[in-house]
Amino acid sequence: MSIKALIEFASNFLEVDPALEALLEQVAQPRSFAKGEHLFNAGSPCDHLFVMIKGLVRCYYLHEDKEVNLRLLAEPSVVLAYSSYIQRTVSREYIQALEPCEGFWFSRAQMDAAIDAFPPLQRLTTNVAERHFLAMENRLLMIQYKSAEERLRFFLEHTDPAIIERTPAVHIASYLGMTPESLSRTKRQITKSDR
């Protein structure tokens, strides 16, 4: 993976001058994850972040041995177990690649040092916080709906089309709080009623 992809990602949030480019080249570690591989695991502190240039991940936790999806993220995204990262505590969530993922890996220490050396980089962390908040708010709003059809319609209206198209149905069902069979039935109902 070329550092140019990371520079292009960073330029969405701030002006990337030669000094910042050199800094990113020095600290960014290209990294890839295979489909099914975990980027982060519950029970360990999250002290890294992954700038995902290509790929799709799910963030989930275990409830009575059942996997419950909290967030679905497609590129470009900053991927981390956010509450663990900001509180410096053990993570309660897992993050797993649903597709092969490519990007850049940063330790918390590297990111803190980079922000100290180049304060405008703080805008990137602000954007991460904003995106995390919005993703969680969307999920909270969605689960307020009583019917499966309302939840699915909300998901379809407020979710990145790349996530909708590329996420396996079993993971969308978990995110929506329903079984795969219920999701399939609800899709058919929506198709029928929208004709």
UniProtKB/TrEMBL annotation:
Coiled coil: none annotated. It holds the Pfam family cNMP_binding. Residues 12-75 form the Cyclic nucleotide-binding domain. It comes from the Bacteria. InterPro entries: cNMP-bd_dom, cNMP-bd_dom_sf, RmlC-like_jellyroll. Signal peptide: none annotated. This is Crp/Fnr family transcriptional regulator. It comes from Spongiibacter pelagi.
